[in-house]
Amino acid sequence: MIDPAIVPVASVDWAGAVRIIRSVYPPIDLFEDIADPADWPLILSAEQKTNPRLMETIGALDLVPVDRRVGGPGASYLMAPFTHVSRDRPSRFTDGSFGVLYAGRSFEVALFETVHHHTRFMARTNEPAGWTSQFREILLDIRAELRDLRGGDPRHAAALDAADHKESRALAAALRAAGADGVVYPSVRYPGGECAGIFFPDLAANPRQGRHLDYHWDGSRVDLYRDVGAGSVFRIV
To 10 degrees, the CA torsion angle through 154, 159, 160, 163? Predict the structure, then answer.
């Protein structure tokens, strides 16, 4: 396993980082409310009496320490990646037992990262060609001290493997257990791009919705995306 001690720390201050998510996920009322996050357990206890399915919407709130929860307009975009987790949905820096919020430093990075994962899903389920899922662009600001994998150190290479995430998950678990706030790393889907994976929602701020996007599946790859508001279609090469 990669020794966490050899991974340097970098100050990351990205205004307008980009995250692209499926539009099927609606805002979560509790997170958007003006109530203090410290009061959420009491609110939940009261509301569950009339809405037994409430926890399905909110997810596993206990996975986020009270002092790291965020609330208010747009907070769903920051909280949901940490409360809706599953070992059935692991990713590069988690086995699914804890949440990670991923964002690209630019739109292009976020686009190519999500296109990769959408392509895998469409191919695995043998979907017919056509315009498929709708997505929304989320802009947010990240300011944090993150462990830096961008330096080209060959000792970090296993954490950036394009297909095998065993080492990156083990490294992230060790870093998180040691108190790290997340990682910043080069995109493996968009050369020259950068990504951040943060371990707690309070490391991002000012979440706001950007464009609505459609992806087109040609039967073997995602070849086009559409800016729904503008009506413009762009080819992905």
Answer: 130
3-state secondary structure of 124: helix
Interval 101-110 mean pLDDT: 98
Extents of the domains making up the chain: 4-25+96-235
pLDDT (tens digit per residue) in 127-144: 899 998 899 999 999 999
Enter the pTM of the model. Answer: 0.90
User: Alpha-carbon distance 168 to 154, whole Å?
Assistant: 14
Contacts of 226 (CB under 8 A, 6+ apart): 131, 213, 214, 216, 232, 233, 234
- Residue 217's H or E segment, with its range, is strand 204-217
Helices (H), the chain: 29-32, 40-47, 54-58, 76-83, 107-124, 166-177
Tokens of 71: 């609330």
